[in-house]
Structure formats: C-alpha cells, structure tokens
Predict the 3D structure of the following.
Amino acid sequence: MSNLDLHGQAILSEYRQLAPVYTRLRELVPEFISRSLEEARVLVTAIESRVKTEKSLAGKLALKGSKYASILDITDIVGARVITFYSDDVDKISALVQKTFEVDWDNSVDKRKQHTIESFGYMSLHYVCRLPKALYSDSALPELNDVRFEIQMRTALQHVWANMYHDTGYKSGLEVPPEHLRMLNRLAGVLELADDEFSRVRASINDYRRKVQSLVSDGNFDEVSLSGDSFNSYLALAPFASLTAKIAAINQAEVQEVSLTPYLGALRLLGCETIGDVERLRTKYSDLAYRMAVHQIGQTDLDIISSSLALQNICIVCLVDRGGSVLELEKLFDAINGPSPYNASRARNIIDFIDKFRK
C-alpha cells in the first residue's frame, strides 16, 4: 500500500473501520433478494455476493483515488450478482430490486442499452442501491443504511461471456490483438441471439400451455393432442372423481389421493392420441370398470382405495374388451408401474378374473 498517497491511505483506513458494515451487507443483500424472488416465484440460477478486498481497493485507489472524497463515494465495495436463465427475467428482477432497495439512479447503468445496432459486448444491468431503514436497520451498525452497494443482473450466457472477456481481455494484463477481440465480439453476438431465442421458446411454450388449458377447460377435447401438459389440464377437471367416489361407496372406503400422471403411457398404449380419445374411453368403459371394482372389493373389508383405481380399471377392461392378450396387459402394467417380474402373473390373474365376472 506504500504507493498510495495520503488521501488514498485515508480512504483505505475508512474501509477498515467499515469492514463489519460491509460484511453484514454482503449477508443481508442476497438474503433480501432471495426472499423477493421467492415471493414473486422467479427462478434464478445463482445469487452471488462479495466484499472487495483491501488489495483490490488499494489498486483502484492507486489508479483513480482522486475521484473519491471518502469511502462512501465508492459504490462497488459490496457487490451482489443475480444470474437468471432468461433475458426477459432480468427486467422482472430489476423491478423486484427497485421495490426492495433504494436505487441511486444517477449511478446506476443499463449496459444493455449502450450498444449501437452494429455492436455487441458486455450486457448487464447495474443498480447502485442502499438498504432502506424500513427494511432493516441495526443500531450497532448505524452506517448500514448509508453505505451504497452494487447489484448486477444478467443472464447465464451474459455471465459466461463477461467472465471470458475479463479473463482474455482487459484484465489479462496483455494487449489483445484486434482480430481476437473481434472473435470475442462475434461470440457475444451469438450468445445474445441465443438469449433471445431461449426467451422466445419459453414464451411459445407458455402460449401453447395456455391454449391447451383453454381448449381442455372449454371441452374441446378432440382439438388437443395427448401430452403431459394436456393430460394434466384434463386431470384438473377431475374426470374420474365421480367413478372413484362410486367405487369407494361400495365399502364406504376412504380415497387415498395419488398421481394419475403415470397413466399417460398406458393411455397411449391403448391408442389414445387426443384428450377426446381419453374422454371417449372414460365414457365407454366406466360402467364395466365399476362392475369390475364391485367384484374386486365387494366381498372384502377394504376401507381404503387408491384414487387411481377407477382409471386403472378403465384401462384394464378396455384392453380386455379389445381382445388384448396377457402379454399386452403385462405391457400395460409396465407402463403404469414400471417393469416388474410380478406384472406377468398379475396380468394372467386379471384376465382370469375378468373372464369370470363378465360371465
């Protein structure tokens, strides 16, 4: 630190005095960011924070210490970084940061808006903030609400490019040839395009899901292909609840709720291609599925049944009614429960059982 002038040394002394404040801010800032993100249900890939080291600060003061009247003028000693998956989430996160902290707009910068139409490069949103007293204060650390800190918001791809640029560019201590800097800028353009495409794909998927939910809720089942999303939307209508309740009433049994998602593969094995096909299957075979349940549990004292029993029986009686073999029924059980050596014997027993109760 001997290369610092008296002014720089004085600022460095202030830094040491405020060390507990910096440490506490480094803990608090990501904690409040994480809480805000969780409440808003915004997923991010990482939240990082750090306190600038004394060595790093000394280097900064040696270069441009005259810019600062005191340590409070240096706004990046405490820094946090929020890395998100999608570029459009950066704006969501910035809105949450604005609600949570006091933003110093004069010293905040949006690097994304600094590029011309033909330039590519560093893309990140930087806010300089303070911790509001209404959010948190500590009488033992009165400077906690005066010290400013920086929050960077960027995507994972922007973060990758920034780290590569820092490692190979101006922080390497070497002059990088123009052709290599051009290669970096070309890469920045590719990553920017990838960021936009990821956001566009997510928006398209969300639009598809909303359309599926709307079609299913309106009963336009034949217009909806059978998929994980559409099947979940269909299940949200509780299409098998009535049959399940009817089966439970045989023994006044309690219904244990389980996921019906595993039956998606079984329905595909039965040839269902749309939600309309599933609905027709339910309508056609519900009565036979109920009769099967009567013979299954009517002579027992079973007082708990699975909520999957109705759909399971529908799948079974449908396959048998179509002349399905023991091997086909075994494959059906494999699709529902996963492959098991017991599925073959279970399939044989079910075929024999259905032949008896249908007579």
